[in-house]
Amino acid sequence: MKSKSYKHGKSTYKSYLKKAGYGYEVGIVYKGKPLFVGNFIKSKEANEWYKKMNNEVKTFAKRYWATEDTSFAFYTKFLGNHIYNHYYKYINKVIPTAHRQFDRAFHKDLKKYRELKTNWSNTEKLAFKKAS
Question: Is residue 128 included in any domain, yes or no?
Fold first, then answer.
């Protein structure tokens, strides 16, 4: 698990990257309350987003600064929405690449299946059956 803390006035935010099941979870927490949570299957994508997210937190704090009088409920919600905005931009870049990879793999397998199918007899068909 990776984590990084950010101090903003009296408030402390914590970003983290951890393994969750067969994938990875990346998020930001403020006082135990999650502001952002994103899930990834590939380690490379999770680490890439974690690095990008931490840079966005720094950029956010410089661009949208606050004072002691600022409502931190509003400010943390604003930070969470900012991170989600960049998360979906990142996902929109990643998905087409993954789609192309799996599309190529499927068509390669389909071609191989059609080659194999020419040698099979129609009477030997097997179908999926519902398991009890």
Answer: no
